[in-house]
Design a protein that fits this description.
Number of strands: 7
Structural class: alpha+beta
Helix content: 25-40%
Radius of gyration: 16 Å
Oligomer: single chain
Shape: globular
Largest sheet: 5 strands, antiparallel
Length: about 170
Amino acid sequence: MPKAKYQFDDFLTTVTNDCKGLVTAVHEMLLRDNYKPKIQVTKSTGLQLSYHQPKIKTTRGIILIFFHRNEKLLIRICGSHYQSYPDVLERLPKSIVRQISQADNCVKFIDPQKCWKGCIGYDFHIGGKHYQKCAINGFQFDVNAENMPYFLEIIKSENRERSKASVIR
């Protein structure tokens, strides 16, 4: 039996009204920059929406993933250029910083042999505190109306830095 093809509107119907603006704004911004959306169903998260940079097939090409877990919308921002926007990270509210602090520490910084070869890990400071977080869930957050402007700022910053990097190549 063929897999169902999902569209952005299918994903958007599963999002609460207070989060639709963020999801739509991100979708439109990334489409303008030629990111390719991918919507799929996974066993662990349910319906999931991710965006991939053109011509980059690895996880480094992903800018973010929206997904549901237990009826909750989550966002995972793959911030491979986080070191280029420390000012954005410094402005994050305590609720987001608390989620960062609860994320798994990156094994790469403890023992590089124990982490996967392509691991980028996140090594940064916020408010004078040092974080070494896993790239998989270091920037994974619960989405709520209060934190949406900060997520949008991180995504815009990451997207801007990726655009600069692709021009340099």
